[in-house]
Amino acid sequence: MIRPNTDELQTKAVAVDYGATRIVEDLDLKIAPGRLTVLLGPNGSGKSTILRALARLQPVASGTVLLDAQAITRMSTKEFARRVGLLAQGAMAPDGLRVIDLVRQGRYPHRPLFGGWTADDDAAVAEALALTSLQKLQDRPLDVLSGGQRQRAWIAMTLAQATPILLLDEPTTYLDIAHQVDLMNLIRRLVDARAMTVVAVLHDLNQAARYADHLIMLKSGKVMAKGPAKDIITPEVIARAFGIEVKVFQDPDSGLPFCLPQRTLSDPADA
Predict the structure, then answer these.
(1) Which residue numbers delimit the ABC transporter domain (predicted)?
(2) Alpha carbon distance 73, 55 (integer Å)
């Protein structure tokens, strides 16, 4: 149901303000098509703000966000929603809304104004429910589910939208470790098997290192470092970004780095 993506999402000299406070400054990013890119950084570094700007939910003070070399502000709402899906933090639904009704809302961008429900819509919803293991819960109201189950329902809605680009803001929030692994494996399969472009905000450095193709470390609204995990998950980069000392090891199976925090630094410059 989800077409492979070759479009490039990028920002050129983007700045974002909240009131009189500048959150993001002079941001130039190119998101590689068909790859999983993870945004990392301490609280307040601009991760979610950047994701919202990419999703056209956060106005930019200056600069441009482009999709396939076209400014996203020039696209219609439906055209953009057919190409880019977003799972935001703290999404809310009306009381009593069933899982399947929420997931069906993901089909809105694909439906004509006066068109009926189609077989393609049914197939997309069924696939989204299957991918998130929600078939047995599809008729339950969201407000009787656990936090993790509700999170999976929102993820299913995003998958039913069938966009080639997914933006995920802390998608593993509320999920226990087993469902975190299931979700990250699902995201990795979507990227590998369908060439989807995924941009995710994560807090878990080791999770990011294991699953991402490309990491972007942010600090104070600017890119501090970017590249593969081996270049980003290092004691030096993590000390500068978070002000903590870590030990970094190599996973004997994957060869990827993983880190163990040791202590906070009185001043990140100590690194």
Answers:
(1) 9-245
(2) 10
In whole angstroms, how large is the CA radius of gyration of the chain? Answer: 19
Q: Which domains does the chain show, CATH number per domain?
A: 9-228 (3.40.50.300), 234-271 (no CATH)
- The number of CA neighbours under 13 Å toward the Cβ of 113 is 0
Q: 122 — phi, psi (to 5°)?
A: -60, -45
| Alpha-carbon span 33 to 91, nearest angstrom | 26
Average pLDDT, integer, range 184-191: 92
The answer to whether residues 223 and 46 touch, using CB atoms and an 8 Å cutoff, is: no
**pTM of the entire predicted model:** 0.89
Q: Report pLDDT for 267.
A: 56
Sign of CA dihedral 36, 127, 157, 109: positive
Distance CA 186, CA 41 (A): 24
